[in-house]
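task queued by scheduler; priority normal; single chain, no ligands, no partner chains; default sampling; output format set to structure tokens
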Amino acid sequence: MKNLEAKFPLTNHAEAEARASDLGYTRRAVLHQRDTFFRVANGKLKLREENGTAVLIYYHRDESGPLMLSNYEIVKVADPPRTLRILATALGPIAVVEKVRTLMMRDNVRFHLDQVTRLGDYGEIEAVIADGDDPERSRSAVNEILAALNVGQSDLIEMSYFEMIAKV
């Protein structure tokens, strides 16, 4: 799978949620996430623990810049504590990111309102692109919500939360 992603600082959570609702986005869940990132030779690997479940996510970016295209794979984890211990021993953790995420969706576009521990509030837009689909078809939907939120190109952040935490 692929996704087209944009990340930016969020100054007003309630206003951003209202503007997204006006565009047809609906609130789907409030997620308590803990992402543990591990040392790997290529791309990024994280164990995401979320509301009592867990998945292992591997991804790498095809392009950098404010609108990033990523390839990713996700697999469910049956025993999160044991998997975390094994990965930490074998690969070594490099960062832990904890956040409360409000998930809103419209069609294939996810809008995340994130409260990230040690960093603050951020918005993240992910257009999920099926294999074989053209990412450009989703770019207009991403641009539409960015415009509704008054987010300009200069507001977009080109790094992940764990890279931001490393700089704190």
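post-processing summary
- The chain is about 25% helix and 50% strand.
- Helices lie at 13-22, 80-90, 136-148, 161-167.
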